[in-house]
TrEMBL record:
InterPro entries: IMPase (IPR033942), Inositol_monoP_metal-BS (IPR020583), Inositol_monophosphatase-like (IPR000760), Inositol_monophosphatase_CS (IPR020550). Keywords: Hydrolase, Magnesium, Metal-binding. It is an enzyme of class 3 (hydrolase). CDD domains: IMPase. Belongs to the inositol monophosphatase superfamily. PANTHER family: INOSITOL MONOPHOSPHATASE, INOSITOL-1-MONOPHOSPHATASE-RELATED. Its EC number is 3.1.3.25. This is Inositol-1-monophosphatase. It catalyses: a myo-inositol phosphate + H2O = myo-inositol + phosphate. It holds the Pfam family Inositol_P. The keyword Transmembrane does not apply. PROSITE patterns: IMP_1, IMP_2. Its cofactor is Mg(2+).
Amino acid sequence: MDPVVDDPSALRRTAEQVAMEAAEHLRMLRTEGAVRALRTKTSPTDVVTAADTALENLVRSRLAELRPGEVVYGEETGGDPTAAHWVVDPIDGTVNYLYGLPWYAVSVAAVRGGRSLAGAVVEPASGRVWSAAAGDGATLDGQPLRVGEQTDLAQSLIGIGFSYRADRRARQARMVAGMLPRVRDVRRAGSAALDLCAVAAGWLDAYVEHGLSWYDWAAAGLVAREAGAVVRVPGPPGAPTAPRGDGLGADAVLAATPGIADALTALVRDCGAAAV
């Protein structure tokens, strides 16, 4: 890794620039009527819109101009994850976007060796810009972020998500049903990236979901970690798999304020996370 070329602060600026440009383009696409489903992926309810593909093409084009020769791994057109320098989710929360709900985001992360060095998450509907650089903290619209100080799991607000596959959704629902009596409440917003950023801001005390992909958390997971959250994620695609030891299941993502991280991990495990 070249310490000059791969300076996290410089990569952060590039991620912010490209994500903001993509978010502005997405606002324009909505006014032009690009909100239509083109195809589905993992299930009939897991849609890809015309805007998803248009935005990823834009992000790839801009990164090629700003960081020539660097490999991009994206949700819609793939790439080589083992060689990736950038991980892109053009619209995280596509179903929300399709329905006109405002909770969706553009995510751009700079990675090296499977590790996030910098990232930006932009919420087009509000214009909010979340970003982070490894070792340099996280911000929302330029203001430093810090996770909440909750220490009582019973008083904690937990973000959750569900698979598009009916069989896995049923298992997740059973897990959440076991959690509900032991926390303040749960929220399901529909964008993993924004949920992780909400943990960073203290708007949620924690977030847990199974089955996410690298592009869902590559940028936002760094934002949460740099804001002080305990963050547990799977390895990137193609990385050697090893037992995690937390009993949550191989593809679980958990982010929590430090005061409840251990208690939440134990609760999720007790509610059947490994079987999800």
